[in-house]
Design goal:
Helices cover 21% and strands 43% of the residues. The protein has four helices and eight strands; from the N terminus they run βββαββαβαβαβ.
């Protein structure tokens, strides 16, 4: 099975709210953390920083540590793909976002971006990935990387 290592960014604003993106064309609504593939030769933190800049325009966030790790098999064009996802903490001073770095594919994939409080995450009827994000955020920053369920 083909594998795709990824860096997902748990971006927190000064109020402790987390940024999620809504995936276009999903019913029920699917909300995920920003991030993407780790390029050959790139570290997890470097990939997280690059993805953060590309998807939000934020370049001055405090980055690290890696909080969680999870694996998930998803099917693309009938082919299973193993996602090896690293979840990296990032803290930013501003909630101002830019889509200037988005690719045409990202413009089709992302329906919207929104800041969520932990309480909103805990009570939303929408699908959030990782599924226990509210509880994970309430637990605080772990001392070592935890393996988490994604769905």
């Amino acid at each position: 099975m083909q594998e795709r290592p990824t860096a997902r960014v748990v971006l927190l604003d000064p109020r402790g709210e987390v940024l999620l993106m809504r995936v276009a064309g999903q019913d029920p609504e699917l909300w995920v953390l920003i991030g993407g593939g780790i390029e050959p030769g790139e570290t997890v933190l470097a990939a997280a920083r690059r993805e953060l800049a590309e998807e939000t325009g934020i370049v001055d966030a405090e980055l690290g540590p890696v909080l969680w790790y999870g694996e998930q098999v998803l099917e693309f064009d009938g082919v299973p793909l193993l996602f090896r996802q690293h979840f990296v903490l990032a803290r930013c001073a501003s909630r101002v976002l830019s889509d200037a770095g988005w690719t045409p594919e990202e413009r089709e994939f992302v329906a919207e971006m929104r800041w969520w409080s932990v309480d909103e995450l805990a009570t939303t009827p929408h699908t959030i990935v990782p599924r226990d994000l509210a509880a994970l955020l309430r637990d605080g920053v772990p001392h070592e990387v935890r393996t988490i369920p994604l769905r």
